[in-house]
Write a structure and sequence with these properties.
Blueprint lengths: L1 E11 L2 E6 L4 E5 L2 H21 L20 E8 H18 L1
Antiparallel strand pairs: 1-2, 1-4, 2-3
Amino acid sequence: MKLVYPVVFTMMDRGLLVYVPNLDINTFGNNLLDAIEMARDAISLWCVCQEDNGVPLPTPSEISEVERKEGEIVTLVDIDTAKYRRMLDSTTSAMDIGA
């Protein structure tokens, strides 16, 4: 399933705090690129776990609906749970081979 969720980036002393309001989860990145990648990974993992447990995924909010404080960056991050599952499966298979 492909979805796009809004995320909020807050500058910290040594990187960016990432908050995903629709999922009420946080992650962290060392720089903006890292923060986007960490957001994509956190959202994908959260969604795959929810799907595995038969829990419907929340409908993403419109970016205009996301509250922001001064200095925060609000943007969208896309995910593809099918692609993420394939990546997890290939990682697991590679770990099994090395065991």
